Amino acid sequence: LVKETGFSPDREVATIFTWNVIEPKKGTFDWTLTDLAAKYATKANAKLSAVIQPFASWDQSGTSTAKNCQAIDFAWYDNKPGAPKDIDEYKSFLTKTVERYKDNVAVWEIGNEYDSGCGGYQDNPQGYYDLVKVTSETIKKADPKAIVTNGGALEATGQDAISIKSFWTTFFSLRGNTYIDYFNLHYNVERTPSAKLDIANFQTDLDYFNNLMQANGGKKPIYITEFGIYSGNPADQPIGNPQPASNQKALTELSQDRQAAEYLKYSVLAFANGTNKIFIDLVGPDKIIIGSSAMFDEVGKARTFLTTLKLINQKLAGFTKAEKITDGQYKFTVNSKPVYVLWSGKIPSEISDSSEVTNYKSELTNKKPSETTLDNNQPIIIE
């Protein structure tokens, strides 16, 4: 499936790069799972985005178990997240891991959503800064060419916006961006029980973090490692809950065509606002919000938007400039030529009728730009 997408790298979201998994006992290393990941990523012509979880249960004696944390990545260190207690042992684990996989890993992520309650650093941005500093310095000592990013940040526009903003404001005021090459952001709002496909909300989120970085040492490229828009009308919300909660609003039914159109719009907005890469889940079932936002269903059938993602990659890869013309209208410079992505307003007058119009499903429309009417639900690419 990875080969079929043509995309790279592969994010190890199950966090097999957890300290506890690689070194289950002090001084005893088990590379079984990470070796498999490296082997099969290589066969698929991909590299890994490795999520380093700095927790080993044997190093966390006395650390309280995190409550209400059910995701598998927390279970793999006995749900005991906390700052590494033996820093020398932690640095030894990091050094051995980086030296072993530096040729297989494209990016090292330092944790996952540590601004939340499960990550062990909620309301402790100073502690997370300290973790990022020692982790980044150790990784780059082992491999000076390594690329390092923070663990994915939660949305600054979600229900915990105040604490999220406070966390990252402090992190960047401490000059945390000194130790990261990309800023890792998550945007899962559109695959939650309250999803409402509000692209303006995404713009607000991007603006917030870009402005925060600019005010504290300069912008870093954005690296979106969790992102998605559901299709259908998922009945299982959230994951693991067989029936919707009684107070949960029904989600709007989204066809796969509409999903594909939204992926194009949101992706273009991301790239026009400093994003370097966007990760999409690979496999998932239709009846779960996060599952239905994956490229393939459970039997390996591609969803419509995979074609759209390939179109984005084909038309915009390597762009050197991105400009917003107006809402719903963007102009990219690719190989010194303009490429427009449009879904609202009128066709810009600068576009000639000799230009080629492609719809979001990668189909040539055989219409001249002057004959084309823009539709919010049917974005087009003109080149």
Can you offer a commentary on this structure?
The protein has 10 helices and 12 strands. With 383 residues, the chain is α/β, with parallel strands linked by helices. The protein has helices spanning 2-5, 19-22, 32-43, 72-75, 87-101, 125-142, 161-173, 199-214, 256-271, 305-316, and strands at residues 10-11, 48-52, 105-112, 148-152, 183-187, 222-227, 275-278, 321-326, 329-334, 337-342, 357-359, 380-382. The model has no long low-confidence stretch (mean pLDDT 92).
End-to-end distance: 30 Å
Q: Note the run of SSEs as H and E.
A: HEHHEHHEHEHEHEHEHEEEEE
pLDDT < 50 stretches: none
- Radius of gyration over all CA atoms, rounded: 21 Å
Shape: globular
**Beta-strand segment tally:** 12
Mean pLDDT: 92
Which class best fits the helix and strand makeup?
alpha/beta
Q: How would a textbook summarize the main sheet?
A: 5 strands, antiparallel
Helical content (DSSP H or I, runs of 4+): 25-40%
Estimated share of beta-strand residues: 15-25%
Please list the strands of the largest sheet in the order they lie side by side: 8-9-10-12-11
Quickly count the helices. Answer: 10
